[in-house]
Amino acid sequence: MKKILMTAMAAVSVQVAVAQNSAVNSAVLNHKNGTLDKALADINKATEHKKTQDKAKTWFYHGVINQDLIGHPIYGKLATEKTPEVALASFNKTLEIDGENGQFGKMVPERMEMLYGQILNQAVEFHNSQDWDNAIAKYDMASMVNPKDTTAVLYAAYASTAKQDYASAVKYYDKLISIGHTTEDVYKNKIQLQQAIEAPDDVVMASIAAGLEKHPNSVYLMQEELRYYLKNDRADEAMAKLDKAIEADPKNASLYAVRGNLQERKGNIDEAYNNYKKAVEVDPNNFDGFFNLGVLEYNKGSEFNNKAAKMDYATYKKKGPALEKQAIKHYEASLPYFEKALEIQPEDQATLANLQRVYTRLKRTADAERIGKKLKN
């Protein structure tokens, strides 16, 4: 009798297990047939029962069914804001149980890639409607799905910047750098944001130094470094660093242009001029060299003009015309530099504005009007 009773109990136990396994199988079949509401109800039961809640198959299909609700034309209404997160957790649990090479574990990567795209699309929709908080939350979730992909992190930085949460944006740029996305723009944007939140000079300078390690020829980064050197009374250090860099790389036109900029800031105009000239000799297409040569010549012309303008009438009659002739000479000298700079960068607004001023000074009205049409208001 006792033996018969035990056998009966075992039979009940088998029936329960089979019933629960059949819930998983029923969920798979309903999913295959497209009845996702029934599939969801079945798989939810399976995740809660002790006989199936630790099975990789259960959690894989729990992830699949929840994922397929997202954006579904009929059953999409069953999805919630948490559905992508539920799918992600289910796929992660599948890997935890089954490993990467298990029957269900090895199917997870393809599903994760699909999930990444779905979440990223949701983030973009929020981004386009300027719902920054939800966009950032979705970008964060997308990044959790694919930690090595940089797109979601980059756009989270953009969204945080648009939201004016600059401190968070800096953290996203740090994350980009940590996963190998180290373009010049990443460092440039990070530094500008650090400046916006008034980060300590040593923090900003550390970012500049890190950027220069990756982009040693970046004019922006070099100029920012010089600016901080000057701000902190370290101009001699900056000059020594530039001299050493030029000695190591004498064919680098950008270095001469930056050294010219430093000399100009220190008031050494002749030295600045010589360095800009050297920059365009080394590289006949060095925009900064030509632009700054044009600016120096134009400024010299303006100095003569200003002196004449400040004279009283009697003094002007004697000395003014000569000063104005000197001014014209320098305006004429600036012209080929600005024209060459515009040839190199045809859309540069600063060059266009300066060229319009020069043409106006030289009474070349038609040219001034032609250039004026290219200026953006």
TrEMBL record:
Stretch forming the signal peptide: 1-19
Segments annotated as TPR repeats: 253-286
Keyword terms: Repeat, Signal, TPR repeat
InterPro entries membership: TPR-like_helical_dom_sf, TPR_rpt, Ycf3
Top-level taxon: Bacteria
Coiled coil spans: none
PANTHER family (UniProt xref): TETRATRICOPEPTIDE REPEAT PROTEIN 6, UDP-N-ACETYLGLUCOSAMINE--PEPTIDE N-ACETYLGLUCOSAMINYLTRANSFERASE SPINDLY-RELATED
Protein name from the UniProt record: Tetratricopeptide repeat protein
Native organism: Pontibacter amylolyticus
